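Can't attach files on this board, so I'm pasting raw text. These are the components:
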Amino acid sequence: MTPDAVTPLRLAVLISGRGSNMLAIARACREGHIAADIVTVLSDVPGVAGLDAARELGLPVACIEGASFRAEGRFDKPAFEAALCAAIDASQPDLIVLAGFMRVLSPAFTARYAGRLLNIHPSLLPAYKGLHTHERVLEAGEHWHGVTVHYVTAELDGGPLLGQARVPVLPGDNVASLSARVQRQEHILFPLVIDWIARGRLRWNDGSPQFDGVTLTAPRHLEDASAG
Ligand code: GAR
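---
Top answer:
Structure tokens for the assembled complex are below.
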């Protein structure tokens, strides 16, 4: 099946920073490599490079500034998420893509978009959930590191794993060299997983995702995935 043979999936892409994954997805959409279109780019941080880059591509952008929901040291998460949901829903996306969106979302939010919410995480989940994954991998002396794309559920970095790409940790690596190696894989893996969903190869199936009709018992690895 070619990309034109399926209705493009409408993507809302949520970012908090540089937006290199958003740009990789945008490029894959524009070049017809994946059957999807970005219909909105939303950031919770104003002035980030990803917002400028999305604007330059002519994509609709908006900022739901997290900091503006903080008063007297308290973050009004329900109000922030209500504003975020309104912005997401206004663009009528099929899929909501967390591409470096650095906020922990409430169970109400993840339930609202169950089966339509994807995240990319810079580790081989379930290893190294949470922040500072590259530092922790280096400190632990691991030989392998990588990236995972998964459906988002209420459990932080804990939803069903869909795709993974591994990279070696090389002698002399530091956080910059290792994260750059991981990011090169992120930019291949994330568009690929989105395309699987767009073509109906990957289905949520009430939280037991299936790939080509077979229940996924482990994430698909990039090297196998690109072969088939
Ligand atoms: C990516 O490396 C992504 O894996 C990570 O943030 C970075 C965003 O980069 N996500 C997380 O850490 C989520 N817990 P980008 O803004 O250049 O796409």
